[in-house]
Amino acid sequence: MTGTMDGSSWKLFLLSCLVVAESSAQDFGQTQFICTSVPKDMDLCTATMQNSGPAEDLKTTVMQLRETVLQQKETIMNQKETIRELTSKLSRCESQSLPAAGPGGRRPGSKNTMGDVSRGTTDTLAQLGQTLQTLKQRLENLEQYSRGNNTVQANSLKDLLQNKIDDMEKQVLSRVNTLEETKPVSRNDTEQRNRVESTLTSLHHRITDLEKGKDTRPTDKFQLTFPLRTNYMYAKAKRSLPEMYSFSVCLWIKSNASPGVGTPFSYAVPGQANELVLIEWGNNPMEILINDKVAKLPFLINDGKWHHLCITWTTRDGMWEAFQDGVMRGNGENLAPYHPIKPEGVLVLGQEQDTLGGGFDATQAYVGELANLNIWNRKLSIAEIYNLATCNSKAPAGNVFSWTESNIEIFGGATKWTFEPCRSLN
Question: Is this model's pTM higher than 0.85 or not?
């Protein structure tokens, strides 16, 4: 690498080598040596800077490659962190998973009383529903037994069933939470879960009534509470309304929901979801709908106090009257004239129906409390309506739909409480 040079200009030449690292993602560690001569007394860095052409290009290349290496190093570190996180999650999943199924499809050591997580959500919740239905039947047997046998044995059976229900509820909640974490819940699965929750709520209330000795209370002394604006919390009449050429519908209501209290009740028939509806939606006044025809009602009830409402109607000329707290507040005509209320429908409390028995919209749901919903297939007199509003003993009961616990089913978490109308006015 050395040669004979002009002695008057140069005394000693040094060989200076620039090392350029040519690296790639697949090939590291290879190097190429590029050498050039510089005077003895000249600074190597200065010589390099003064070098034109290839030296400057090489320096730029070195800097670019160094930056590339640093970026690749950062990328590798991020990928390692991601791999560690995924590995940790996988380890947790493996540690929580059930053992492999043994002969016959049953997992070793499992009791299989609450269904298998590996099965679909619908299958598991269906099994839970069947189990809770069995408990419900046992509770009904218990109620019949305790009415005829007020003994220590009946109380022991109650305690045993209460403990069983408590355990079942804990397992239901645990299983549902597990299912929600492992896969999205479809609409059908949500409806199944709501039915299970409703059954649990009903069982708890009936057990409480048994423990407090409320079996002998009148079956109409109760109220329904809808604490949230949802599309799944409601109550339903067990039987349809008959064909009616006139009607009177009365109820107690308490709400301060805003905007609008929602839908206290709706009656839908095949082909007409708005056959008979009482609704206060958004900033609109309360309305009565008959065959999808509307009349605005002069009610002012959004004050958080109990109010008694009555609406009467006859198909002839569509005449209607509206009473609040026993006093007529308004009347009108031409509301669905000569259209009889059709039979074979579904009466729902707390929700507005867009389809027969369903199609609920949370924005139209009722929020508050209601009680003593009664329906007659005739127009009540002013005196009869006043007696209802003042809790007079002469007040009639609905001959088409009467407010008794045996006529109503509750769903989705709606609750049932003891209610005395005139004692609850304040």
Answer: no
Residue whose structure tokens are 């709606």:
414
Question: Would you place residue 27 in the very low, low, confident or very high pLDDT band (cuts 50, 70, 90)?
Answer: very low
From residue 359, give the alpha-carbon distance in Å to each of 102, 158, 268, 351, 368. Answer: 44, 38, 11, 9, 21
Three-state DSSP class for residue 360: coil
Residue 282 corresponds to which tokens in the numbers above?
């958004």
Query: What is the mean predicted confidence (pLDDT) over 159-167?
Result: 63
Task: Give per-residue pLDDT as tens, 125-134.
Answer: 565 666 566 5
Q: What is the pLDDT of residue 409?
A: 94
Protein fold of 222-423? Jelly Rolls (2.60.120)
Facing residues of 237 across strands?
408
Per-residue pLDDT, 170: 62
**201 and 413 Cβ atoms separated by less than 8 Å:** yes
**Cα(251)–Cα(311) distance, rounded to whole angstroms?**
9
What residues does each domain of the chain span? 13-69, 121-211, 222-423
Distance of alpha carbon 310 from alpha carbon 302, whole angstroms: 16
Tell which residue, 353, 404, 352, 340, has the closest CA to residue 374.
404
Specify whether the CB–CB gap between 311 and 288 falls below 8 A. Answer: yes
The three-state secondary structure class of 412 is coil
CA-to-CA distance for 199 and 194, rounded, in angstroms?
9
For 112, half-sphere exposure in the C-beta direction (CA atoms, 13 angstrom radius) is 10
